[in-house]
Design brief:
The chain has about 110 residues and is an all-alpha fold. It is about 70% helix and about 0% strand. It starts with a helix and ends with a helix.
Length: about 110
């Protein structure tokens, strides 16, 4: 069980199967056991990160901002450059003042004030 936890932790660190296989081989684990550990660790790793139903958004403000900014970019590319840039400026000001991205203030916009 300790090897299984170690293999899952290696998955969490972002290692691929070949890297995990090399590390387990260096630890003296047999090839058949490595194959079984990789299968089990993949299953555990993927089950830990199952998400909710696909297609539903928890934050409608983010979805609205994404669709709105896409519409603004379409306006810019269609030739309404002044209108598009005006709305991009307005959207940037709203996002910089709002707190919907994080519970604390967004630090990305603090650098440019």
């Amino acid at each position: 069980m300790d090897l299984l936890k170690h293999t899952v932790n290696l998955r969490k660190r972002g290692l691929i199967s070949n890297d995990i296989r090399n590390e387990l081989t260096a630890m003296g684990v047999g090839e058949s056991e490595i194959t079984q550990l990789l299968k089990d660790s993949d299953e555990i790793f993927l089950n830990q990160f199952k998400t909710k139903e696909h297609g539903k958004s928890n934050n409608p403000v983010k979805s609205f901002a994404l669709v709105f900014s896409l519409g603004i970019l379409v306006l810019v590319f269609l030739g309404y450059i002044y209108l598009g840039l005006l709305w991009l400026l307005a959207l940037w000001m709203i996002i910089s003042k709002s707190r919907f991205l994080n519970k604390t203030r967004n630090t990305f916009f603090k650098r440019y004030r």
